[in-house]
Amino acid sequence: MTKGQEAEWLSNKDSIFTSTSSQHFNLYTFKGHLGTKTRLDLLKKREIAYHEISDFFEIETSLSFNIFLFKNEQIKYYLTGHKGFGWGFDNNIVEVFNDLVQMDPYHELSHVMGYTLNQPPALIDEGTAVYLSQQFGDKAFSRLIGYPTKSTNEILLMLSKKDGLKSISTLLSYDEFGNSNNATLDYCQAASFVEFLTREFGKQKFLELFKSLSNTKSTEAEMIFERIYHLEMNQIENKWRKQIRANN
């Protein structure tokens, strides 16, 4: 997706869509797609998510975002050029919303709110989004992938029996997870690792990590991990691996 393609439909959004607004969101839909009550209910849930995520990131509460909801993936792709059910960039969230596909209010919002601080590698970026959607959204990721009663770690151990776990260094080298083999396992592993870092070492160190990583080379990123946590990367990973097995 080029900036030119983004600008074409974004710059014309007010003539393409109808909009409904709340304190922190402008919700854009095609006329006739969603009723007034549904749009207001969606905005109410997004406002709740907004405050929970802003509390986690400890950021200002005066941000505003655009949400674009499409009836199906085909229409979304035709207009935006983006494949998949959900996408977050700049201050925009783009999602499919219908009777079968409804993204949770947290995942893409975690991305775009996190981007106001920094844009870390996929391991931390996606791991944080899944972790927060699990924490605040009643296991939203688990429900999305068909295991509604299981925790991230339970799913992780189940899926890894076939393909095994990738090293943290390997995941740290990925720019994104969507194109990798067994992306679901990668998302679970990243979320489990973020949960471990947050609970084992505290949220403040994790926020320092989130703000420090950017899209650096994986070797440089490992040095940042070691500086913040005062442990070698393999020691951090070993502690994580032992904990997920001990707790499950």
Any key phrases for this structure?
248 residues, alpha/beta, 5-stranded mixed beta sheet, 58% helix, globular
What is shown here, in short?
The chain has helices spanning 3-11, 13-16, 36-57, 73-80, 107-114, 122-136, 140-144, 152-163, 168-172, 183-201, 203-213, 218-229, 233-246; strands at 18-21, 25-29, 65-70, 86-89, 92-96.
Oligomeric state of the chains in view = single chain
Unreliable sequence segments: none
Q: How does the major sheet shape up?
A: 5 strands, mixed
* Strand portion: 5-15%
Tell me what the structure shows.
- This protein is α/β, with parallel strands linked by helices.
- The chain is built from 13 helices and five strands.
- It has a five-stranded mixed beta sheet with strand order 1-2-3-5-4.
- It starts with a helix and ends with a helix.
- The model has no long low-confidence stretch (mean pLDDT 92).
